[in-house]
């Protein structure tokens, strides 16, 4: 008995998943269903933000999206499409959080010279370090600085324990104790290592705890 061709297999697979795909496409366009389909609650700072503030609608109708997906499965289209709403990108984050005082703008991580570092920290987008529908405020490790600053040299170093020494000791857990990553807090870096924020305070903040850098912020996010 001859085995079915690859095209036939794709068609059979499509027929099997088509009802689910149609239902999913419909469900994702209904506001009263979206919340129940979310992966988890929003972080506290985003409480009350509507789904559509971050999830932009995919172009076309549900029928057109299904047709495009069918063409993709059949090999007649190069890329798949999202049903209902597209995946969140950095542009959606920056619509509310772009600011002039940004120390680590996302475009810096896209520069070719940082390609090796990005492989370590997965910072191609805001979602490389931040994740919504998750209890953590920051999903990266506080040790993330080592990816780019392993050869750091500071002229006229003002700290009592020099940066060269800290790098040589691989004391990366101390970086965020003195430096606010995005530079958006009215927080002045101490000149004595003993005055740095404790590592456990930074870890707690990453896990959704209190902001150790204090308030006010220099630039508040815009209302969506």
Descriptive notes:
- The protein is mainly alpha-helical.
- The protein folds into two domains: 6-87, no CATH class; 91-206, no CATH class.
- It is built from eight helices and no strands.
- It has helices at residues 6-27, 31-37, 62-73, 90-97, 115-121, 163-168, 175-178, 199-206.
- It is elongated and about 70 Å long.
- It starts with 5 loop residues before the first helix and ends in an 18-residue tail after the last helix.
- The mean pLDDT is 82.
Structural class: mainly alpha
Round the mean pLDDT to the nearest integer and report it.
82
- What is the subunit arrangement here? single chain
Basic shape: elongated
Q: Provide the domain count.
A: 2
Q: Helical content, roughly?
A: 25-40%
Topology, number of strands: 0
The DSSP helix count reads: 8
Main sheet: strands, sense, barrel: none
Share of residues in strands? under 5%
End-to-end distance: 60 Å
Q: What's the gyration radius in Å?
A: 23 Å
- Spell the H/E element sequence: HHHHHHHH
């Amino acid at each position: 008995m001859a085995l079915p061709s690859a095209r036939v297999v794709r068609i059979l697979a499509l027929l099997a998943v088509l009802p689910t795909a149609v239902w999913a496409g419909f469900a994702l366009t209904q506001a009263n269903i979206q919340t129940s389909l979310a992966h988890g609650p929003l972080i506290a700072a985003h409480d009350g933000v509507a789904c559509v503030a971050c999830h932009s609608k995919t172009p076309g109708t549900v029928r057109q999206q299904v047709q495009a997906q069918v063409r993709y499965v059949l090999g007649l289209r190069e890329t798949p499409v999202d049903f209902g709403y597209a995946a969140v990108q950095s542009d959606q984050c920056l619509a509310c959080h772009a600011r002039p005082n940004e120390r680590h703008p996302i475009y810096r991580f896209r520069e070719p010279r940082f390609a090796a570092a990005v492989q370590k920290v997965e910072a191609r987008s805001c979602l490389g370090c931040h994740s919504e529908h998750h209890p953590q405020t920051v999903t990266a490790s506080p040790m993330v600085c080592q990816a780019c600053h392993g050869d750091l040299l500071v002229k006229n170093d003002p700290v009592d324990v020099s940066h060269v020494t800290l790098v040589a000791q691989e004391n990366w857990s101390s970086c965020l104790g003195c430096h606010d990553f995005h530079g958006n807090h009215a927080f002045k870096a101490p000149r004595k290592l003993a005055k740095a924020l404790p590592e456990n305070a930074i870890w707690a903040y990453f896990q959704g705890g209190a902001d150790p850098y204090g308030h006010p912020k220099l630039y508040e996010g815009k209302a969506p």
